[in-house]
Amino acid sequence: MAHDSLTRPPEAASDWTVPQDWGRYTVEEHAVWDTLFARQSALLPGRAAPEFLAGLDILHLSRPGIPDFAELSERLMKATGWQVVAVPGLVPDDVFFDHLAHRRFVAGRFIRRADQLDYLQEPDVFHDVFGHVPMLAHPVFADYMQAYGEGGLRAMRHGAIDKLARLYWYTVEFGLVRSGDGLNIYGAGIVSSRGESLFALDDPSPNRIGFDMERVMRTRYRIDDYQQVYFVIDSFDALLRATLETDFAPLYARLGDQPDLAPGDLLPGDRLLTRGTQAYAMARAGA
Ligand code: HBI
Ligand code: FE
């Protein structure tokens, strides 16, 4: 997603952060958080990765109301050295990567309206804090997110942001992880969405493919509907190792010579866990 068209709002600092102004949230806004939290908490046991559920506990996120980032950051800092900072919305890529590289997770401070419970385009505080922050309490994932930020700053020098954004998309946002003989959710975009928390694991429509760095970086994604493919990591250790061990310069060069893949494409070399019917995507395309 190219964010160079963004202009920094006057109230934002040079690093695009703004005060959360926790005291300004209304009773209705806290109630929206509580409604979303209750829905997802009822749904996620057995579906979300145990590491995600542990993060909810470690960070006391089951307390009612929108979390105060100062309190949340105090606990998170003790766990993995991360903190949560408020931003007005999407920030430019270089700003985003720099925050991640310094263990600062940027979270939107606004929350969706009660009539937008099921979907919204811009990441709000529920998507960012409920979706992304619990995994930051897990040391290996916390290291992965910082490595991703550092990689992002390098990718900019190779003009490879779009390739690296796909890694973020298919892991941090929409990743699945093996758990015993099943699959669990760890991606924030899934775990913060009731519909996709069901669809990603249960629906026969999407492909589910074993994670491979080059394959992920070749694969386009959609931002407007459920994913047509989910990539599955064997473990968070494996994801961190893959990121630290990849020599990205030659990989970006190889990627430059190969055509991108559409979200629903399959390759002979894919480690295919589910060959999807793509029925959902076809129905939506035909609608
Ligand atoms: N800004 N606030 C915010 N949140 C994001 O998730 C985000 C962003 N800017 C850029 C971005 N994500 C992605 O395009 C990067 O992966 C490149
Ligand atoms: Fe997100």
What does this structure look like?
- The protein has 287 residues and is of the alpha/beta class.
- It has a single domain, classed as Orthogonal Bundle (Phenylalanine Hydroxylase).
- It contains 13 helices and seven strands.
- A five-stranded mixed beta sheet has the order 4-3-6-5-7. Strands 1-2 form a two-stranded parallel ribbon.
- Helix 4 crosses helix 6, helix 6 packs antiparallel against helix 7 and helix 6 runs parallel beside helix 11.
- The chain is globular.
- Bound molecules: 7,8-dihydrobiopterin and fe (iii) ion.
Q: Give the CA-based shape.
A: globular
Would you report the number of β strands?
7
Question: What order do the strands of the largest sheet run in, or round the barrel if closed?
Answer: 4-3-6-5-7
Main sheet overview: 5 strands, mixed
Total individual domains: 1
List segments where confidence is low: pLDDT < 50 over at least 5 consecutive residues: none
Order of helices and strands: HHHEHEHHHEEHHEHEHHEH
Task: Determine and state the CATH class.
Answer: Mainly Alpha
Gyration radius over CA: 18 Å
CATH domain fold name:
Phenylalanine Hydroxylase
Please count the helical segments.
13
**The CATH fourth-level homologous superfamily:** Aromatic amino acid hydroxylase
Structural class determined from secondary elements: alpha/beta
